[in-house]
Every structure is written in C-alpha cells, then in structure tokens.
C-alpha cells in the first residue's frame, strides 16, 4: 500500500498550466468559430464543421499511436516488462481517445448531414470507412473489458495490430465499392475552405489537439497508477505470512 | 517431423474428433437451414426473382457467418478439457502448425456445409444466376478461408476471456468487414451478372494472404498469453 501513497492526489504544476492553456485556446477557438464569416449557402449551419473537422482529423492520429504502442508492447514484453506495461497504458489511452474523438466526429457529422442533406446517415465511402474505424476501436475497448486480468495487454495488443492492418484494406475496398455504385447525395469532393475561415479551423484543430494530448496524458497516468496498485497489492499478498 | 507433418497430425486429430461426434457439422447445417428459412419469412424470394438475386449472396454469407460462429466457439474449448491446451503449449512442435491444422479442419467443416446447403439455398430461393456460376468455386473457398482463418485465430484469442462466446463475433465481425464486403459483392455479381467479380476476387485473395500471415505470425503470442 505504501507504493500507492507516493502519488499525490493533485495534478503536477505543468499539467495544470497545460490545462489552463488548453482551456484558453479552446475558448479562443470557440470565439473564432462563432465570429467567422457566415457561409454563403449553408448560413450559420456550417459552424459545426469547426468541431467536426478537428475531431475527425485527430481520430485518425490516435490509431497510429495505438498501433505503435501495441507493437512496442509486444516487442518489450519478453525482456522489459515495466516498459511494456507503460506501452500498454499508452495503447489503452490512445484507443479510448480514438473512440471518443470518432464518436464526436460521427455525431457532429450526423448533425451536419441532417441539416445539409436532410438525412442523418448515408452509406457513402467516407462515412462507411469512418464507421468501420469506430467499430474496430469499440471492439478493442470491449476486448479489454472482457479479457482476464493477466492477459488483457497481450490480447488487446494483438487485436490492435490486426485493426491497424485492417484499416487500409477497409479504406481501399470501400472506395472501390462506392465508386462502382456511386452514391447520389454526396460526391467525393466536398469543396474547399475559404481562406478567411482557415484561421478558425486551425485554432480549433490546435485546441482539440491540445485537449486530446491532455486527456491522453491523464488516461495514461490513470492506467499506470492502476497497474502499480495491482503490482503493489500482489507484492503485499506475497509478503503476507498466510501466503507462505 | 517437418512442419507439414505437424499440420497434418493436428488436422487428422481434429477431423477424427469431429467424425466421432459430428457436433459442429450437424449444428452448422441445421443452423444455416434455419437462417435460410427465417430470411424467406422477411421477403418472398419466389415472387421477386431479381430481388432474390440481388440479396441472396449477402444472405448466404450471413447465414454461413452465423453458423461458423457456433463451430468456431467449440473448436478450441475442446482443447481446454483435461488441460490438453497446456500439453500443446509444452510440446516442442511449432505453435502455428497447431493453428493451421485447426483452421484447415474448420475450413473443411464449413466447406462441407456450403456444398450441402448451396443447392438447397438455390432451390428454396428459386435462384437463376445470370453470371458465370463456375466462379463460385473460387469465391466460396476464398471467402470461407477468410472467415475461418481469422475466426479460428480470434476464437483462440477469446478462449480464456469472460463471455468468450459473446466476444468472438464482437471482435471478428469488425475485422472481417472488408472480406465480407468482397465475398458478398463477388457472389452478388455472379448471381446478377451485372458486373465482373474480378476486383472482389483480388480483394479477397489479398485479404486471405495478409491475414493468414498475421495469424500464423501472432499465434504463438496468443497461445502463451498468460
């Protein structure tokens, strides 16, 4: 139990600073999004784009982190268990953030789709691939819940590698599928961003990337702490006289 | 012993076990038949022949997918009784040979189900394929291998988890989506005769090669995961 007490309950100063900075940039991003010029055809409706775009772009970044951490886990597992556990904690943090960001991306996309196209969903190539990405990482999170305590890390690392192999195949095959049967509502070109809106987009991407990094760090620290608590409990059990 | 003879030994053992009990095959046959009947309740295949051609490729694969789930869940839990799995882990034989033997056995079981039920399916749904039917002889084995290879791997992965029978489809379906898409599209193209299924055959073939390699390479890790 002494092992766990060395963690203080509060955040370190640099993390609080980072959080404060993140909140400031988020607020400024919100201000930029709300004061950007109204779009010509869609009016104020398009403003959901400023949340949709950062979340979607960032939800493509976290899977790479997850795959890299899972591969590192498999490599380090045999001869450096402590570092392997750190990689596993990073893998779970990045997978959960993938699910979170992809969920927000899907939800904001649906809001936009309902307002702009009149339908919540269409089986267009991009939407389908994105939904599959979301499904893959939800199944990863589910596997982590179901797996036994001793093997969660290995099994989920293997699944992460499979998911990473699957994504490019998914992407290509769905593109081929939808080019063979083109969807009527939505072509693959969705126009361009007007230069005056660039600033708002970039501020929001920066803000949500900072927020993502903060959440990733928090989740990583939480998972590390949980791992160390389990290790400490195991040590205590081994040291107890009844165990002998 | 060479790698191939290890695989053959495992394959023979699995075939013998199945021959004595015949649980998986009987279960799958009846299950697939039931799914075929249930889908026939959803729409009238004889009244709408072109609709039947368009969707029965998908129905056939969905039925086979669900049916193979029942067999895949059984295939490793057999090895848990009397700690046979631990004996396999101790043996000096390559772990992947164990996997390949099991996957081949499952492949043969599901293929047998297809051979019996594809004609039944065609009769019940009154199917008159408009494309080149002989291509199904390539599509069916490639699609079956895609399902069974990953299915065998993931059923080994979920073997010692809580609710393993629930977990298997939850992890297998998302990973198999591209393969499912390719096999359904290829079969539908053969049935409707509107497009050439060549592209989807290539996708299936690539998928099979990539995932067979991944399964063979990672099986040792899965087998010794705790």
Main features:
heterodimer, A: mainly alpha, 8 helices, 0% strand, globular, disordered N terminus, B: 226 residues, mainly alpha
Q: What do these coordinates show?
A:
- The complex is a heterodimer of chains A (about 240) and B (about 230).
- Chain A is an all-alpha fold.
- Chain A has one domain.
- Chain A is built from eight helices and no strands.
- Chain A has helices at about 1-5, 15-35, 50-60, 60-75, 80-115, 125-145, 150-180, 195-240.
- Chain A is globular and about 75 Å long.
- With about 230 residues, chain B is mostly helical.
- Chain B has one domain.
- Chain B is about 80% helix and about 0% strand.
- Chain B has eight helices and no strands.
- Chain B has helices at about 5-20, 25-40, 50-80, 85-90, 95-125, 135-155, 165-190, 200-225.
- The longest helix of chain B is centred in the first third of the chain and has 32 residues, at about 50-80.
- Chain B starts with a helix and ends with a helix.
- Classes of the chains: A mainly alpha (about 240), B mainly alpha (about 230).
- The interface of A and B includes residues 132, 159, 161 and 166 of A.
């Amino acid at each position: 139990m002494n092992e766990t007490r060395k963690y203080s309950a509060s955040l370190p100063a640099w993390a609080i600073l980072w959080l404060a900075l993140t909140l400031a940039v988020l607020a400024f991003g919100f201000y930029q999004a709300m004061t950007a010029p109204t779009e010509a055809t869609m009016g104020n409706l398009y403003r959901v784009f400023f949340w949709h775009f950062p979340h979607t772009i960032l939800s493509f970044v976290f899977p790479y982190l997850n795959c890299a951490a899972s591969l590192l886990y498999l490599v380090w597992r045999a001869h450096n268990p402590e570092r392997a556990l750190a990689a596993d904690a990073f893998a779970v943090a990045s997978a959960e953030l993938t699910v979170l960001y992809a969920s927000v991306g899907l939800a904001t996309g649906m809001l936009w789709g309902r307002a702009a196209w009149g339908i919540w969903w269409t089986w267009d190539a991009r939407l389908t691939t994105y939904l599959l990405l979301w499904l893959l990482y939800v199944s990863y999170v589910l596997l982590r819940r179901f797996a036994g305590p001793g093997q969660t890390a290995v099994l989920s690392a293997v699944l992460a590698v499979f998911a990473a192999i699957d994504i490019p195949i998914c992407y290509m095959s769905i593109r081929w599928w939808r080019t063979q049967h083109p969807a009527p509502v939505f072509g693959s070109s969705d126009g361009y961003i007007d230069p005056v809106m660039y600033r708002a987009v970039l501020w929001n991407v920066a803000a949500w990337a900072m927020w993502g990094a903060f959440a990733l760090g928090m989740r990583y620290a939480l998972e590390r702490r949980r791992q160390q608590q389990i290790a400490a409990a195991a040590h205590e059990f081994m040291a107890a006289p009844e165990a002998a | 012993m060479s790698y191939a003879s290890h695989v053959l030994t495992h394959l023979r053992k699995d075939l013998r076990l199945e021959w004595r009990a015949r649980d998986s095959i009987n279960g799958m046959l009846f299950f697939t038949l039931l799914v075929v009947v249930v889908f026939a309740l959803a729409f009238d295949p004889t009244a709408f022949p072109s609709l039947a051609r368009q969707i029965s490729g998908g129905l056939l694969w969905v039925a086979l997918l669900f049916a193979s789930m029942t067999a895949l869940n059984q295939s490793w839990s057999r090895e848990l009784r009397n700690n046979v799995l631990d004996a396999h882990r101790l043996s000096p034989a390559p772990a992947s040979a164990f996997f390949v033997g099991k996957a081949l056995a499952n492949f043969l079981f599901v293929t047998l189900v297809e051979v019996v039920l594809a004609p039944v399916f065609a009769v019940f749904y009154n199917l008159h394929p408009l494309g080149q039917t002989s291509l199904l002889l390539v599509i069916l084995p490639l699609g079956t291998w895609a399902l069974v290879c990953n299915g065998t791997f993931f059923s080994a992965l979920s073997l010692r988890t809580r609710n393993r029978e629930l977990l298997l489809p939850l992890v297998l379906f998302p990973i198999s989506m591209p393969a499912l898409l390719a096999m359904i599209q290829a079969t539908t193209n053969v049935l409707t005769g509107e497009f050439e299924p060549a592209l989807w055959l290539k996708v299936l073939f690539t998928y099979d090669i990539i995932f067979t390699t991944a399964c063979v390479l990672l099986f040792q890790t899965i087998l010794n995961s705790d």
